[in-house]
Amino acid sequence: MKCMKKIIGYMSQPQVQKILLLMVILCIITIGLYAQSDPGDDPANAPVDGGLSLLLAGGIGFGIKQLRKKRN
Q1: What value does the mean pLDDT take over residues 3-7?
Q2: Which residue has the higher pLDDT, 71 or 10?
Q3: DSSP per-residue letters across 47-71
Q4: What's the pLDDT band for 67 if we cut at 50, 70, 90?
Q5: Using CA atoms, how far apart are residues 50 and 30, in angstroms rounded to an integer?
Q6: What is the pLDDT of residue 69?
Q7: 8 A C-beta contact, residue 9 and residue 16
Q8: What CA–CA distance (Å, rounded) separates 52 from 26?
């Protein structure tokens, strides 16, 4: 606890409030992640892995980087 008090002591009140709000929002959002239904025997109903969205985000980021590099 002493470590947390030391870290929070360096932050201003609005920063602490923003961090606490972010933590509460993330906790509420993660509750829905446990509510996935059983896909059963049909492979078409299998949930899509989060890796697909990460791959898409990486591709978009790489494309933006290449466009910026090309303009300069």
Answers
A1: 66
A2: 71
A3: PPPTHHHHHHHHHHHHHHHHHHHHH
A4: confident
A5: 14
A6: 84
A7: no
A8: 21
